[in-house]
Specification:
The complex is a heterodimer of chains A (about 300) and B (about 220). By secondary structure, chain A is α+β, with helices and mostly antiparallel strands. Chain A has 9 helices and 4 strands; from the N terminus they run ααβαβαβαβαααα. Chain A starts with a helix and ends with a helix. In chain B, helix 3 packs across helix 4, helix 3 packs parallel to helix 5 and helix 4 crosses helix 5. The complex binds adenosine-5'-triphosphate (ATP) and magnesium ion. Adenosine-5'-triphosphate (ATP) binds next to helix 1 of chain B.
Chain lengths: ~300, ~220
């Protein structure tokens, strides 16, 4: 165990010495890795925030039933009874047209409606369901459309679905991007290690003649690639942090226009650590491939 | 005990470097190998640490068939053999001290013991006080002595030196010969290839020679 530790300590110090021997090359590789990592890492964290936000906004999905302008009180009562008879419906709320208009005015849309003499809004029922199975929404809304006095049935979860679909698209895009850029990083490391192996051919061969095992020879290269990944990861963390710092105000403005208070996006310790760990893993992977290819007896 | 049994080495391209070599070397022997350039001396030596594998025949070292040793066992074989190759193969990017330290690290010696052994080896080859210098700043003879220190610092039971005095003037050459003789006196099996047949004359070593890949006792 002590010997194992000693061998690794030596390998780390050799790897650090090699990194330090060419500070410019090291910095350049780390910058390439860092910049390439910034986009997917920042994107993932932003997406995470957006998803949380979307969940918070959506609440319980609702169905709105807008009545015909000329619906009679008897029809309205019949609809209410039908709704009460549905086992899957949890809550029923009647929103008279006057109340609906007030709500709009309170939301600051009074100006838009100010010019219209008559209230254009219909009476409506807003119901919440016990589950959130989309199929349930569809069967219920189809049924409701056939009731007398109903002008229009609207599933209010639709925009939430659209938002979720949009977020899903962004999420998949970011993942594809991450995989591609991750691959690029592994290739960058692969090539760095390949060059390292070439420049250290003599040392490798001498070590072999002196009885070094493959593991002994490979160890400093693994550390080299992994440490370079860590450096790249640290640069990415810095870039993401700075990026969020700059983007915070514009994001808050966008949120404001949607009537959502958006807390400033930032990067927590775990996310930072995850970025560095991912970069280190990619460095390790690139090294592993390079070493397997170029460092076998 | 080193035993070559009808060893032939044909390099890719068809050149026969060794041709049916039979040889037995007992533990503690001092063997001087001579022969013209291209006779196969280096090839013969490289068969023992499995740097080169025979085309036919077997090479045994202490009852172990090194000519058919699996790859993963080769490093452990080499740790017991001190090698001074024709090209001294020092590492020019590190100090004399670190050059001599390398086999000890490879062998997993604890740092304190390794430091002790490097100092002793430096002393033995007359380079005490020069450990911080880099090989490029040393003369050819000094570089050769670093290579020799590196070869025996692990206390191998066999020391193989391929023309260790090739680039040295006669005074340095006989110093190095004395060094090998002293290892041999301590019980180490020593094999030296050299063109300079007068080198070990004081100690009447066993002399063998290669001629176009064929071995002869002298
Ligand atoms: N790796 C190789 N591939 C092909 N031929 C080789 C190789 N190594 C050696 N030879 C050939 O094998 C023959 C013997 O070479 P070797 O190096 O064993 O001779 P040597 O006696 O050590 O010569 P010298 O005194 O010049 O060092 C030479 O003709 C050489 O050209
Ligand atoms: Mg030779």
């Amino acid at each position: 165990m002590r010997n194992w530790l000693y061998l690794h300590t030596r390998a780390v110090s050799r790897a650090l010495a090699r990194l330090a021997r060419q500070p410019f090359g090291t910095l350049l590789s780390a910058l390439v890795m860092g910049i390439a990592l910034t986009l997917p890492a920042g994107g993932m964290i932003l997406l995470d925030h957006a998803s949380t936000l979307a969940r918070g906004v959506s609440g319980k999905p609702e169905i709105s039933l807008f009545l015909n302008d000329d619906a009679s009180p008897a029809q309205t009562d019949a609809i209410r009874q039908n709704l009460q008879a549905e086992a899957q419906i949890e809550g029923i709320r009647f929103v008279p047209r006057d109340v609906a208009l007030k709500q709009l005015e309170n939301n600051g849309l009074g100006d838009v409606l100010g010019g219209i003499a008559a209230n254009p809004l219909p009476d409506a029922f807003v119901v919440t369901l016990k589950g959130d199975d989309p199929a349930l929404f569809d069967t219920l809304s189809t049924k409701m459309r056939n009731w007398a006095g109903i002008a229009h049935v609207q599933i209010d979860s639709a925009w939430v679905k659209r938002l979720a679909a949009l977020l899903e698209l962004v999420r998949v895009t970011i993942w594809v991007l991450s995989v591609l850029l991750g691959l690029a990083l592994a290739i960058v490391t692969f090539n760095t290690i390949r060059l390292q192996i070439l420049t250290q051919e003599n040392e490798i061969e001498v070590s072999r003649l002196l009885g070094a095992t493959d593991r002994f020879i490979r160890r400093p290269f693994y550390w080299f690639g992994t440490l370079q990944g860590v450096l790249g990861g640290l640069i990415a963390v810095g870039a993401v942090w700075a990026g969020f710092h700059v983007l915070s105000a514009p994001i808050a403005k966008v949120g404001e226009t949607w009537g959502m208070p958006v807390a400033p996006v930032s990067l927590n310790g775990i996310e930072g650590l995850a970025i560095v760990a991912a970069a280190a893993a990619l460095g390790w992977l690139g090294t592993a491939i390079s070493v397997r290819r170029y460092l076998t007896m | 005990m080193i035993v070559f049994d009808r060893v032939t080495k044909r390099y890719p391209g068809g050149y026969t470097a060794l041709d049916g070599v039979n040889l037995r070397i007992a533990p503690g022997e001092l063997v001087v190998l001579s022969g013209h350039s291209g006779a196969g001396k280096s090839t013969l030596f490289k068969l023992i640490p499995a740097i080169v594998r025979p085309t036919t025949g077997t090479v045994m070292l202490n009852d172990q068939d090194v000519s058919r040793l699996p790859k993963r066992a080769i490093p452990y074989l080499r740790r017991n053999i001190g090698l001074v190759l024709q090209e001294s193969r020092l590492l020019f990017d590190r100090s004399v001290y670190d050059n001599i330290l390398l086999p000890l690290i490879i062998n997993g010696q604890p740092p304190s013991e390794a430091a002790r052994r490097v100092s002793a080896a430096l002393d033995r080859v007359g380079l005490s006080g020069r450990e911080k210098e880099f090989p490029a700043g040393l003369s050819g003879g000094e570089q050769q002595r670093v290579a020799i220190a590196r070869a025996f610092v692990n206390r191998p039971s066999i020391l193989i030196a391929d023309e260790p005095t090739a680039h040295l003037d006669p005074v340095y050459a006989s110093e190095i010969a004395e060094l090998f003789k002293s290892f041999n006196s301590a019980g180490v099996t020593v094999l030296v290839a050299t063109h300079d047949t007068s080198l070990f004359r004081h100690w009447s070593p066993r002399r063998i020679a290669l001629d176009h890949g064929r071995l002869m006792e002298q």
